[in-house]
Sequence to fold (452 residues):
Amino acid sequence: MQAGAEQRGQWSSKIGFIFAAAGSAIGLGNIWRFPYVAGENGGAAFVLVYLACVALICLPYMFAELALGRNTEKNPVGAIRAITPRSLWIAIGILGVLTGVFILSFYAVVAGWTFGYIFKLFLTEPTPFTEFIASPWTVIGLTALFILFTVLVVYGGVSNGIERWSKLLMPLLFILMILLIIRSVTLTGASAGLEFLLKPDFSKITGKTFLAALGQAFFSLSLGMGLMITYGSYLSKKDNVITSALWIASLDTLVAMLAGLMIFPALFALGKAPDAGPALVFIVLPEMFREIPLGNLIGAAFFLLLSIAALTSTISLLEVPVAYLVDEKRWKRKYTVWVVGAFALLLAIPSALSQGAVGWLGNIGGRDFLSLMSFLWGDISLALGGLLLTIYIGWVWGVSNAAEELAKGSTFFKSRPFGLPFTNAQIWAFFIRYVCPVFIFVVLLNVFGVFG
Ligand code: PHE
Fold:
């Protein structure tokens, strides 16, 4: 056995893995990004397309990433190298590693705002959100602090700390969200918000809706950059990958829907527009907190838990490049964590300054730098990575190898559903070889304006 392989951890239990992977999936993507992307793309119509993307594209795709990870027990680059050494396919792994660093760079900026809001809610005269995010030193300081937290956790090793903390804190986040939903839906005028979120207006579905929904689904489920390959590599052969993935996807989707239920009723009750973009959560929620007893305490608790949810995601974003450099380049883990963290901070600075601090960063081809990063790495790169990985797993590694791996620990996978003449594995293979790549490809073409 190699020296590196001995150090490879395993999740302590199936539940431990579900919490860690759900911790990666559940984060700002659900509570900050989902509501504003839904708001910008027509509400309920978007939600419907989103749910279809999760069930039909993302879930089969998640099985595939996990299968590759568990089979090879490697990071994204190492996994592909193990199957097809010295091939161009390794570039997909490299793209995933880079995507991790770039997503971390803008994600940490927003996570920094979240962290700042824990304290801001106690101020008697807080600066408005737009002013807050335009103050250069505050945002850079908060971003640096958040990256530092991430580095410190990954530095010490992820396994025990994260697993244990996630198990305690995720349920707490859940309870707080339920409380806030109750407040939100009982405000006068809340029903318009419920309607916006739950009653689809099909005329609002366009090509753009599909891109936004697919991009959001990949982002929210941490897919397309090899995170699930990396986390899957720590799984034991006895674990049931299928049910684990179902849990992760369901929990993640549930939290996104809860976030919508929390935001939109309050938003409409307060008479605000749903398409406020990235500022949505930071403007609407504090206003709601002002209207409830002990609102600043509840609000602070909420932003604290949101920061923690963001932290379990930033940890996973940092873990992918770190795992790559340690496994493949034989760097020392502790040194690697600092180097990648510092690099991410450097990349984060233009995003941090793009929200009003430095004028020209606020408009680069019609988007501010942070939104541009989110579009390039959070939407395009994840979808592109997802496309290449489905092709790789479906056609190069091969669906039969992947299905063998998935059947370990799951008898269900090889069985025939409802007495049909084909097995679940065969249905899955059809999705991975045809449905997923074709759908993702069409959505990507649409980004480049192929359909006008
Ligand atoms: N899924 C995380 C969220 O929704 C973000 C993320 C994307 C984390 C990709 C890891 C990999 O907040």
Notes: Residues 5-447 form a domain with the Hydantoin permease fold (CATH 1.10.4160.10). Residues 369-407 form the longest helix (39 residues).
